[in-house]
């Protein structure tokens, strides 16, 4: 019975010119967004790969220099784009892509696409995720709002029920039929995405990109199921088609437009974050309490020097096997890095608290659940961004401390000497490994469970409400 | 012979309104019972009670010995329902509509079998593959009849089936009912059409304000006498 009704809905939907036109439009948008997104991804990825290679070569081809000069010369870390970022750009447009890595300084990640784009980017980009999260539900609402009301208005619901079907069977048939229709719009785009992934070079994001794509598709399948079931239940409970449409459009506006912005604003209001300038000032202020390797008059540097004399049993700096300046630099770096890490962790916690509000809101709003899930699976959410920041900072710290170590081992009078150019070629360059899927699934469990809870809850409670609906 | 359709003290009340007052009625297989009455007399309420779309306040309705309220799905295997205006699915063809209704009733037919049912119900063969959106009301009624036959229904519940049909279509419809009746199908038809009731019915009932006030075999009176009887009860 369910299959017969599903077939009827599917056939009726395909023959409905309004739906066919809307579907073709959305399919074209999806395919265009996939292709344009992939092209943008490929361009940016090529640019970043090339730039990373160039700065690595520049770093390796430095002439013979003092290691601390090399530390100040620094290098750049470019954030590779995640393999699925062409499907959901997430925060990538607004988070930076490049960070300058140098001694004593933890720079922020700069040069986001939004910084380099016109003001129109404020309106958002046409991405696959935008179409899937916002426009496809709208199409589904237009498709499903009359599921029951139109049958009731036409008297066909009584005809179906008089054949021995139940309201619930009719509802399931419609859900399955509309699901097939939705698949006609979405599956080609995801198929194209899969093809593009297959044809492209192995990008950052690693070998788990197929698992990510599969879960991405599964997540959206559950999301569309929730929208379809919700729309069918509303239609079953509504007295007229117009009332069902108005209710569903209201839900769409609330879920896709109002609630996400409200929770973001509420999060920022409840957990205010410090600005970049405030963070830098606070780090600088606290770092002053540590050793300043560049200040020979620094009292803490003098104490460290005295400790080195004692450790090596010497009374003259010339007799030390290590460079006092090198050891002082290493100590200063360790201290300032610790200070930065503390402040950065506090700031990250603030952002995480803000984001947590959106995560919990996903229990109330399936749109927010799929948005978080989609960004997380595409590797373009805040957590992936922080992962890159931390990887870049960890590399910076290792690099600078390696150079400080080289300086320390040069012994007394190091400032007058240089190390051979080959020294720099032996230093490993920055190579970013994006986190695996398992890492992301850890914090994506809540939105995933929220989406599942919506699907199960609506199937259980919603269809019980359908049972109690008017027959006509 | 046990009744195929039966009402025992069947009663339906809405807040502030008595829609059906203790109806007692039995229909034997092959019998055509025409229920006459004004709008709001309780004819559609009676049909809805037999279909199980609404629950009785008291009493019980039975189809083939099964109580409708207790076996709402099982009883639908034995009956077919044709409303006043059979609005099928306009995007589907006559064949597709019939295939859908038959499959919901548990019957799978080949295309040729479906075509045969439609032809037997009087639908022109060339119309079977056309979308129902292009059909006249009479043609849709024929698809409805075809679905009842394909379902092998023992009871046909008809709610004002000839309303709005032209005389030719109405006549064809009556012939179809008589055919079904001769094959043992019981027909319960709510109608305003006194002359059609006299023509196809084996018994007529007159309902007024939810009460079945008169029941007569159609053989005992002619059309004019039936009209006079009806008007007398309506005064």
Question: Residue ranges of chain B: pLDDT <50 for 5 or more in a row?
Answer: none
Tell me the count of domains of chain B.
Answer: 2
> What is the strand tally of chain B?
10
How many beta-strand segments of chain A? 3
The global form of chain B is globular
Order the strands across the largest sheet of chain A as they lie in space.
Answer: 1-2-3
* Structural category of chain B: alpha/beta
**Helix residue percentage of chain A:** 55-70%
Radius of gyration of chain B: 17 Å
The structural class of chain A is: mainly alpha
**Cα-to-Cα separation, first versus last residue of chain A:** 20 Å
Report the principal-axis shape of chain A.
Answer: elongated
Write the CATH homologous superfamily of the largest domain in chain B. Answer: P-loop containing nucleotide triphosphate hydrolases
Brief summary:
The complex is a heterodimer of chains A (472) and B (235). With 472 residues, chain A is an all-alpha fold.
Describe this entry's structure for a reader.
The complex is a heterodimer of chains A (about 475) and B (about 240). The mean pLDDT of chain A is about 85. Chain A is about 70% helix and about 0% strand. Chain A has helices at about 1-15, 15-60, 65-75, 115, 130-145, 150-155, 155-160, 165-200, 210-235, 240-270, 275-285, 300-310, 325-360, 365-380, 380-410, 420-425, 435-465, and strands spanning about 75-80, 100, 105. In chain A, strands 1-2-3 form a 3-stranded antiparallel β-sheet. Chain A contains 17 helices and 3 strands. By secondary structure, chain A is mainly alpha-helical. In chain A, helix 2 packs parallel to helix 8 (about 165-200), helix 5 (about 130-145) packs parallel to helix 9 (about 210-235) and helix 9 (about 210-235) packs antiparallel against helix 14. Helices cover about 35% and strands about 25% of the residues of chain B. In chain B, strand 7 (about 155-160), helix 5 (about 165-180) and strand 8 form a beta-alpha-beta unit. Chain B is globular. Chain B folds into 2 domains: about 1-80 and about 155-235, Rossmann fold; about 85-150. In chain B, helix 2 packs across helix 3 and helix 3 packs across helix 4 (about 135-150). The mean pLDDT of chain B is about 90. Chain B has about 240 residues and is α/β, with parallel strands linked by helices. In chain B, strands 6-7-8-3-9-10 form a 6-stranded mixed β-sheet, with helices on both faces. In chain B, strands 2-1-4-5 form a 4-stranded antiparallel β-sheet, covered by helices on one side. Chain B has helices spanning about 45-50, 95-105, 110-120, 135-150, 165-180, 195-200, 225-235; strands spanning about 5-15, 15-25, 30-35, 60-65, 65, 80, 155-160, 185-190, 205-210, 210-215. The interface of A and B includes residues 4, 11 and 16 of A.
């Amino acid at each position: 019975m369910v299959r017969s009704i599903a077939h009827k809905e599917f056939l009726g939907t395909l023959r409905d010119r309004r739906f066919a036109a809307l579907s073709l439009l959305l399919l074209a948008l999806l395919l265009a967004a996939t292709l344009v997104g992939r092209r943008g991804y490929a361009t940016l990825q090529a640019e970043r790969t090339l730039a990373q290679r160039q700065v690595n070569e520049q770093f390796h081809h430095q002439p013979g220099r003092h290691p601390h000069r090399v530390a100040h010369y620094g290098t750049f870390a470019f954030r590779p784009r995640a393999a699925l970022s062409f499907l959901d750009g997430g925060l990538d447009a607004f988070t930076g892509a490049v960070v300058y890595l140098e001694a004593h300084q933890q720079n922020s990640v700069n040069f986001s696409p939004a910084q380099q784009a016109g003001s129109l980017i404020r309106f958002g980009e046409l991405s696959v995720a935008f179409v899937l999260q916002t426009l496809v539900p709208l199409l589904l609402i237009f498709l499903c709002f009359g599921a029951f009301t139109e049958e009731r208005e036409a008297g066909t619901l009584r005809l179906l029920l008089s054949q021995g079907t139940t309201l619930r069977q009719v509802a399931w048939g419609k859900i399955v039929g509309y699901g097939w229709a939705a698949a006609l719009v979405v599956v080609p785009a995801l198929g194209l995405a899969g093809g593009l992934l297959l044809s492209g070079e192995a990008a950052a994001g690693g070998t788990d990109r197929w698992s990510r794509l599969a879960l991405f598709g599964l997540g959206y399948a559950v999301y569309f199921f929730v929208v379809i079931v919700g729309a069918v239940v509303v239609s079953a409970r509504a007295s007229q088609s117009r009332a069902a449409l108005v209710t569903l459009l209201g839900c769409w506006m609330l879920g896709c437009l109002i609630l996400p912005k409200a929770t973001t604003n509420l999060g920022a209001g409840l957990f205010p974050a410090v600005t970049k300038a405030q963070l830098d000032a606070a780090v600088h202020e606290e770092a002053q309490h540590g050793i300043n390797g560049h200040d020979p008059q620094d009292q803490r540097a003098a104490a460290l020097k005295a400790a080195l004399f004692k450790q090596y049993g010497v009374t003259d700096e010339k007799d030390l096997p290590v460079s006092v300046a090198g050891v002082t630099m290493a100590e200063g770096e360790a201290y300032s890095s610790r200070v930065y890490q503390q402040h950065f962790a506090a700031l990250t916690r603030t952002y995480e608290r803000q984001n947590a509000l959106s995560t919990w809101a996903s229990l109330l709003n399936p749109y927010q659940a799929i948005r978080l899930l989609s960004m997380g699976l595409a590797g373009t959410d805040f957590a992936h961004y922080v992962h890159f920041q931390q990887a870049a900072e960890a590399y910076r710290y290792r690099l600078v401390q390696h150079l400080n170590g080289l300086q320390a081992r040069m012994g007394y009078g190091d400032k007058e000497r240089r190390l051979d150019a080959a020294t720099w070629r032996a230093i490993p360059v920055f190579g970013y490994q994006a986190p695996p899927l398992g890492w992301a699934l850890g914090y994506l469990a809540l939105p995933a469970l929220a989406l599942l809870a919506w699907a199960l809850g609506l199937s259980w409670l919603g269809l019980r409400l359908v049972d109690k609906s008017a027959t006509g | 012979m046990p009744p195929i359709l039966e009402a025992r003290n069947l009663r339906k009340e809405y807040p502030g309104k008595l829609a059906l007052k203790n109806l007692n009625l039995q229909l034997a297989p092959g019998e055509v019972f025409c229920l006459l009455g004004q709008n709001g007399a309780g004819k559609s309420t009676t049909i809805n009670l037999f279909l199980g779309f609404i629950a009785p306040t008291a009493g019980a309705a039975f189809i083939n010995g099964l109580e409708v309220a207790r076996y709402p799905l099982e009883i639908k295997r034995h009956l077919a329902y044709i409303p006043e205006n059979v609005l099928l699915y306009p995007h589907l063809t006559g064949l597709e509509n019939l295939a859908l209704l038959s499959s919901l009733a548990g019957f799978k037919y080949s295309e040729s079998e479906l075509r045969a049912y439609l032809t037997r119900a009087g639908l022109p063969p060339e119309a079977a593959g056309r979308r129902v959106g292009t059909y006249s009301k009479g043609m849709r009624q024929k698809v409805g009849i075809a679905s009842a036959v394909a379902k092998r229904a023992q009871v046909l519940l008809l709610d004002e089936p000839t309303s709005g049909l032209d005389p030719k279509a109405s006549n064809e419809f009556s012939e179809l009912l008589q055919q079904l009746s001769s094959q043992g199908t019981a027909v319960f038809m709510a109608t305003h059409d006194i002359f059609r009731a006299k023509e196809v019915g084996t018994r007529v009932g007159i309902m007024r304000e939810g009460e079945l006030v008169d029941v007569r075999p159609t053989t005992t009176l002619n059309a004019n006498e039936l009209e006079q009887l009806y008007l007398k009860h309506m005064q």
